[in-house]
Amino acid sequence: MLRYPALTNGIPVPMEGFGPTPAIYKQSTTSHRKTVYLTEHMILFIQRGRKVLHFGERTVEADSNTFMIMKSGVYVMSDVVPEEGMYEAVLLHCTDEQLRNFLVQYDLMPAAPVAAGPDQLQLPMSSLLETFRKQYLEYLQRPAEQFPAIQALKLQELLLLLVSAPYKATILPFLQQIAHRVPADIDHVVHTHLFQPVTIGELARLSHRSLAAFKRDFQEKYQCSPRRWITQQRLQHAHMLLQNTQEQVANIALQCGFDNVPHFIRIFKQTYGFTPNSIRTKRAIF
After folding, report:
1. 122 with 238, same domain?
2. Which of 94, 80, 90, 116 is CA-nearest to residue 38?
3. Distance between CA atoms of 135 and 139, rounded to whole angstroms?
4. Given 5, 115, 186, 285, which is the most exposed site by the fewest CB atoms within 10 A?
5. Residues with Cβ within 8 Å of residue 206, at least 6 apart in sequence
6. Per 3-state DSSP, what percentage of the chain is helix, strand, and coil (rounded to 5)?
7. Are residues 171 and 201 in the same domain?
């Protein structure tokens, strides 16, 4: 599973040659599929081709006529579909802090926390956003000397466009509930992401808590540390799948939230006293 943007100690990894950047240019000549976990909020503009995004049971198709905004913490499988041999897109990302600072600067911050809303929005492009997309693509393809500073200004320009007509009624509440939200129910967050390879820190962010507050609240609810409880639940599910399906061990590991198969095999043996493949061997004998 990929993480976008990639993080090092919680900080976005700089793009080669650009320093820390809030955007990336994507280009592909072939169809492909990948699974991504969004570590920051993302805005997707497609210039050519299509992207089919699978959010659990919901599937959305995006093209050059629409744009998408997705919250951090979204776990999505996406299919890239080139058009006339080419797919091009711009992905911009921003943090909670950037959104809060923007809303405060323009006196748009709500007085009270806003209830949780959808994880993503898809809206039609306007002529102003089409102009923005075209210009931003030119900057990404031919970066200017002061490119990082320009990008910071362009992100602010984009947010101003998004909280103006015709998008204000839909997008402003979406941004406000990101910037000023109440802590989410831990039970819901944990069970929603239980079999996804997310870290404890990422679960804390999804619950809108600090890491320390998440661990404290989790311990109070489950009488167990987050890492130990989640690992136990994943191993129990893996044990059930090994006994009742013919799936490969590597596939079962991934399905249960373990993106490191050797690590999965090691802790499975530590817990049950035998390897995952041993279950299959015992079934064959009896």
Report:
1. no
2. 94
3. 6
4. 285
5. 73, 184, 189, 193, 198
6. 45, 25, 30
7. no
Find the CATH number of the domain harbouring 208: 1.10.10.60
The sign of the CA dihedral 101, 127, 39, 86 is negative
Instruction: Give the count of beta carbons closer than 10 Å to the beta carbon of residue 88.
Output: 18
Please provide residue 236's backbone torsions phi and psi, each rounded to the nearest 5 degrees. -60, -40
Same domain, 61 and 198: no
> What pLDDT, in 10s, does the model give residues 198-236?
889 989 988 888 899 999 999 999 999 999 999 999 999
| Neighbouring-strand partners of residue 77 | 35, 54
> Last residue of some domain: 157, 179, 201?
179
Verdict on whether the full-model pTM lies above 0.90: no
Domain final residue pick, 179, 195, 217? 179
What dihedral angle (degrees, nearest 10) is formed by the CA atoms of 205, 208, 213, 217?
Answer: -110
**How confident is the model over 69-110, as pLDDT tens digits?**
999 888 888 999 999 999 999 999 988 889 999 999 999 998
For 224, the domain range is 186-285
The two tokens of residue 263 are 């690590």
On the CB side of 145, CA atoms within 13 Å amount to 0
Distance, CA of 159 to CA of 100 (rounded, Å): 12
3-state secondary structure of 133: helix
